[in-house]
Amino acid sequence: MAPKSRSLLFPLLLILLVSSINETGATFFGIWRPINDLKGQVVEQIAKFAVTEHNKKAKTSLEFVSVVQGETKLVSGKNYRLVISAKDSAAAQPKNYSVVVWSRPWIKFQQLLTFDEVKV
Fold first, then answer.
1. C-alpha span between 100 and 36 (Å, rounded)
2. What is the pTM of this model?
């Protein structure tokens, strides 16, 4: 490889590395990692967004209760895979749902990818 090519390659690799570092300082493209703080503001906002979007699409009236479990994966943004507890106003007990939300906060974008009841 010519010296000029090497001098261009290094900055490009550095930019790629820095852009892939998450808040803990490690790179995890495409790998699901557990969420440590399930009651964190961002995680709860993502879960509430999932319930709201599901209610709009399915014409239901679920109410968010809590986040039971969660993982994130770096993609072009971040995917959140959560198990949430939500209650239908007519039901006695809340049910668990598995949801995936794609988030790109720098452009204020969120999309509900899946919302499925967890069958026991």
1. 17
2. 0.75
CA 114, chain centre distance (Å): 11
19-43: pLDDT as tens digits: 444 444 455 678 999 999 999 999 9
Rounded CA-CA distance 12/2 in Å is 16
- Cα–Cα distances in angstroms (integers) from residue 30 to residues 36, 52, 119, in the given order: 18, 27, 26
CA nearest neighbour of 97 among 79, 111, 114, 84: 84
